[in-house]
Write a structure and sequence with these properties.
It is elongated and about 90 Å long. The chain has two domains: 61 residues, 2-Layer Sandwich (Beta-Lactamase); 194 residues, Alpha-Beta Plaits (2-Layer Sandwich), CATH 3.30.70. It is built from nine helices and 13 strands. Strands 6, 7, 8, 9, 10, 11, 12 and 13 form an eight-stranded mixed sheet that branches. It is an alpha+beta fold. A hairpin with a 5-residue loop joins β4 and β5.
Length: 288
């Protein structure tokens, strides 16, 4: 069978016998009953007491599933901080092809960035915005969220996906938003006044579809559904430095955080959107 799936098989045998050395090669043939596979061929010379080669052994290892898991793990590493990657027990059960579940979404956008960007040369502009994106990324990952995407000066974080399952995902999302707001103020201490910007942050909780989307050559893990869109709308309602959460999120976190009810400033296709909440801090009396 091997000569038919690997044209260099005869040459490999000849090299083992002539050079008296082990040869290892990986091949990726397409088998009629299985499709593409990954095989490791290890050919080792057999020698007699005088060191003369009189034959060889052939060991074939099927690495197909291992290679698939490694490829999936490499993709996962682009979504998750190292601490979460190390905690993954089973790649096969991640459900990256599609999973519907309740998640919490943090959508944060830098306020005043468009006007600010017109005042700086490109290199300096990118350096500044990357400092703000680093703050938001660190805040999301501090509470084991994953970065869904960067959109210019905006960042989207996801909690309770199949990559980071969390029962307290709404609490984590709000904590991440607060940490982001606090850390931006700390960043201001080392930035000149003209570079001191603020995030407007929206947080929503709801059912979404999550999985890999894209073409065979490029895929991205993302969330599709109402929570992503509504978190973006809440972010658009937020003034500079504000954290605005939805009723759904508020219902899950109201005992732990202080929040003021507000009328929406923008409703954008959500006629039933009548109330939102501005988070003002942590309810210290309920913190354990």
């Amino acid at each position: 069978v091997l000569p038919f799936v690997f044209e260099g098989f005869d040459a490999l045998i000849a090299a083992v016998l002539e050079e008296n050395s082990q040869q290892v090669v990986e091949i990726e043939p397409v088998l009629s009953e299985r499709g593409p596979v990954n095989l490791s061929l290890k050919l080792t010379p057999l020698k007699d007491a005088d060191g003369i080669t009189y034959g060889m052994t052939l060991v074939v290892d099927d690495l197909t599933e291992i290679k698939k898991r490694d490829a999936t793990l490499n993709v996962v590493r682009t979504y998750l901080p190292p601490s979460l990657v190390r905690n993954i027990q089973s790649i096969d059960g991640l459900g990256l092809s599609g999973d519907e579940r309740e998640i919490s979404v943090v959508f944060a956008d830098v306020r005043g960035f468009t006007t600010f960007s017109e005042q700086l040369p490109p290199e300096e502009l990118m350096a500044v915005i990357n400092r703000y994106l680093t703050v938001s990324t660190d805040a999301i990952q501090l509470y084991d969220g994953i970065i869904d995407k960067y959109m210019g000066d905006a960042v989207v974080g996801l909690f309770n996906t199949q990559l980071n399952p969390q029962q307290d995902h709404a609490v984590r999302a709000v904590r991440a938003a607060l940490s982001m707001a606090y850390d931006v103020r700390a960043l201001h201490e080392v930035l000149p006044p003209e570079q001191r910007l603020f995030y407007g942050i929206g947080v929503d909780t709801g059912i979404a579809m999550l999985g890999n989307v894209g073409s065979p050559s490029r895929k991205e893990f993302t969330a599709i559904g109402a929570p992503f869109n509504f978190a973006k709308l809440l972010q658009e309602n937020a003034l500079a430095g504000e954290i605005i959460i939805s009723q759904q999120t508020y219902d899950l976190v109201q005992d732990l955080f202080m929040a003021d009810p507000l009328e929406p400033r923008k409703v954008k296709g959500y006629p039933g959107f009548q109330i939102m909440y501005r988070v003002t801090g942590v309810n210290k009396s309920r913190q354990g």
